[in-house]
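re: ur question from earlier - yeah i can do the single chain one, its not a big deal. heres the input i used so u can compare w yours
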Amino acid sequence: MTQTNLSTFQPLGRFRWVILFCSCMCNAFTWGTLYSCGILYSCWCREFPTTSKAFISLVGALPVAVGCVLGPVHGIIIRKIGYRNATILGGLLMSSGWMISSFMNSMMGLLITFGLLTGFGAGLANFAGSTALNDYYIKDRVFAEGVVGSALSFVMFISTEILQKLTEAYTWKGGMLIFGAIHLHLCVVGLFLIRPDQASTHALNYWKKKTNSYQVTTSLDTTETIRMVEDCNQNIDKNVLARKIVEAEEKQNQTGPPKRSIKEFMKISWKLWGKPSFMLLIISDSFSWMATYIPFVHLVERARQLDIDDETSALISSCNGIGGAIGRVFLAIVFQKIKIHPLYAYAITQSLAGLATMLSPLWSTTEGLFVYATIFGFMSGGYGYIKASVALMLGRELYGISFSWFLLLEGFGLALGPTIGGLLYSSTKSYDMTFIFSGGLIFISGAMCVWKNMVESCELVNNDDYDEKVKLSDDALELKITAISHVI
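and the output i got, formated as tokens:
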């Protein structure tokens, strides 16, 4: 049984902005800085000329791949120690990975320190920040994802420029050492990732309540109750609310809490893999991540192959960040205004980004690469839309299990895509086929989503006992929301 203080929900409204900022920083200091690895890739190509570009590409892509593949492991750690401690731990590991990498004299050493250690820390901190965001943002999650993605793009732009200057002044080793120190800021950010049921009285919450008032004893999940009240954002009769929560609790207790065993996880997963909508989403997402990271890894070296100087090449790559910082927020607002389904928003952005990438070899000049990098960055916010699509099409109850499989395949795609890109360059001595391959997969990942309605119409509705158990939590939450709407 837990004590739910109904008078302490209001401070969360302001503290949500702190959580949004901290989640932005978690995303920016993990994937945002790792997306600038094109600078390192170019440096490593010159430092280790006898090493194949495919292997160097693998090392550059491995941190993000490891961070995704180990998503289920990160989830277990976060459940054990909380996302506050997980962010701090991830920050320490990521910082250590960057700094230790500065002492490596071989690509095999970088594979371990930069690829594995940095990747594990980055994935843990990023997953923790996303989990905190999920606890504080429900209805406006798509907008929050747009803001977080915009922060990632902005930091990617800044970090690319900073890393280029550092490598020029101190070589790539000195640049990685300094970047390692910068990533210790993740530990500071993690301090503010406080659970919703603790935020209203926590010392780090400036708007915390100093006195307790009306309380209700309930075994319902505190975070769900906070979300329910937060969505309403109005004054509610607390006696009526307490009675309705108890009624919902009694309905939930009729069949007991949902199982969390490995056996149940595999049972739900087996049913998910049989759903056409799940297959459509996960195949599209896998194609996307196999291709999306290729421009980030290879664009700088592609520019240098065209005899563009180092500083301009780095600036071209950083235009991805400028385009993304503007495009992700702008498109999120536009799509929210016109009320388009997130999967269709994903289809539009992916298809346009894919076409731009496939056609980029036709304009292989300095101006052409600037235009391409900006367009690609502007359309790079599809990941937030497909995450929202998973929740809408598969249900919030199945979101965690579904996305564990998404992260697993994303990690393999991230490792495989840039490696294939390097092999294509080694075979053709040109990056044209590399970018055509990348653009083709991105375009396919978006275009196949037009089958959404047809796929959903093919799904059979199963009314067995298992499905009733899966829907139990959603039914209880629906009852609570309906009760509050009647009070209002």
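The first helix runs from residue 11 to 34. not sure if urs matches, ping me
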